[in-house]
């Protein structure tokens, strides 16, 4: 956001002014919310940036609430503003159609945001966090896969944003930490009971798992091998019985009693809480992996890319 934009981001100590909000103020608010920038909203609405700033300040005074937080590039809506946008978006867009403007209010001519990452992380964390943006007009095109091939595709321009399970090397891509994954060793209750449970694993080590099928994500066992090194201090020599390139499939097989696996805790937390899965080990220092939000350096041609990025960074603080 520019210096002039920041002038409108003062704290709301004023008493809310009486009377309903003017429709023009709500249109301007929705344009800022969708674009993530006072400057971009001004371009979309055909207004000057100071006019947009003044209108947002007027609306904030009437509501008695701040609507946006200043960021390095643009602004980010506060939760109250997200809720307000969800309420007014459809009526304002319908009104725009009635009056002859078929485009959503304040929506610039932008294409979809191309978002990539692990399938289970996209489905269980990322996409639900972006539901409000989709409802407000942001379009998404998602691709799922392993981090290394997706990084290669991103370097060639195929993706706008990428959730990576490792930090990319070099300066061709920029990355910020998004969330930490804790890994857990799990099996179905009957399998765990047959092995002797966590006590047997703690007393005898991973040898008790000999002969039990290992269900994993990929042939090279990246998650399981890291867990073995970190928790047991040894090399995993057990081959995979089944590989599934989607950890939700691994979870389903393990919960059905097919064998054991190492999974992110966020993925199997409901099954652990319900008793559908059992922890086979409970180390004091569980292995953790950081997921990164990756983007090409420099300003994005599509303003919705920065809007999605900032929304995910904020959502990731609670994951």
Word description of this protein:
The longest helix is centred in the first third of the chain and has 20 residues. Helix 2 packs across helix 4, helix 2 packs across helix 5 and helix 9 crosses helix 10. The N terminus is likely disordered. The radius of gyration is 24 Å and the shape is elongated. Strands 3, 4, 5, 6, 9, 10 and 11 form a 7-stranded mixed beta sheet that branches. Strands 1-2 form a two-stranded antiparallel sheet. Strands 7-8 form a two-stranded parallel ribbon. It has 319 residues and is an alpha/beta fold. It contains 14 helices and 11 strands. The chain has 3 domains: 96 residues, Winged helix-like DNA-binding domain superfamily/Winged helix DNA-binding domain (Arc Repressor Mutant, subunit A), CATH 1.10.10.10; 95 residues, 3-Layer(aba) Sandwich (D-Maltodextrin-Binding Protein, domain 2); 108 residues, D-Maltodextrin-Binding Protein, domain 2.
């Amino acid at each position: 956001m520019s210096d002039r934009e920041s002038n409108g981001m003062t704290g709301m100590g004023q008493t809310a002014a009486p009377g309903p909000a003017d429709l023009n103020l709500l249109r301007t608010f929705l344009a800022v919310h969708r674009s993530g920038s006072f400057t971009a909203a001004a371009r979309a609405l055909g207004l000057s940036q100071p006019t947009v700033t003044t209108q947002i300040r007027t609306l904030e005074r009437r509501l008695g609430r701040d609507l946006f937080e200043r960021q390095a590039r643009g602004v980010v809506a506060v939760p109250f503003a997200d809720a307000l946008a969800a309420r007014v978006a459809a009526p304002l867009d319908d009104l725009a159609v009635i009056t002859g403007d078929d485009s959503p209010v304040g929506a610039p001519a932008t294409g979809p945001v191309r978002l990539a990452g692990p399938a289970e992380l996209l489905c269980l964390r990322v996409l639900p966090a972006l539901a409000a943006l989709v409802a407000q007009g942001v379009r998404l095109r998602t691709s799922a896969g392993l981090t290394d091939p997706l990084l290669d595709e991103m370097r060639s321009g195929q993706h706008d944003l990428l959730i990576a399970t490792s930090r990319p090397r070099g300066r061709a891509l920029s990355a910020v930490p998004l969330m930490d994954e804790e890994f857990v060793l799990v099996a179905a209750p009957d399998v765990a009971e047959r092995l002797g449970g966590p006590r047997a694993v703690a007393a005898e080590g991973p040898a008790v798992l000999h002969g039990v099928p290992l269900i994993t994500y990929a042939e090279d066992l990246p998650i399981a091998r890291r867990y073995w090194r970190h928790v047991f201090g040894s090399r995993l020599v057990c081959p995979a019985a089944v590989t599934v390139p989607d950890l939700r499939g691994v979870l389903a097989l393990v919960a059905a009693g097919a064998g054991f696996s190492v999974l992110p805790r966020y993925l199997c937390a409901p099954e652990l809480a319900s008793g559908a899965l059992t922890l086979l080990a409970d180390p004091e220092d569980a292995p953790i992996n950081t997921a990164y939000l990756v983007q090409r350096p420099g300003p994005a041609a599509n303003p919705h890319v920065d809007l999605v990025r900032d929304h995910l960074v904020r959502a990731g603080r609670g994951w």
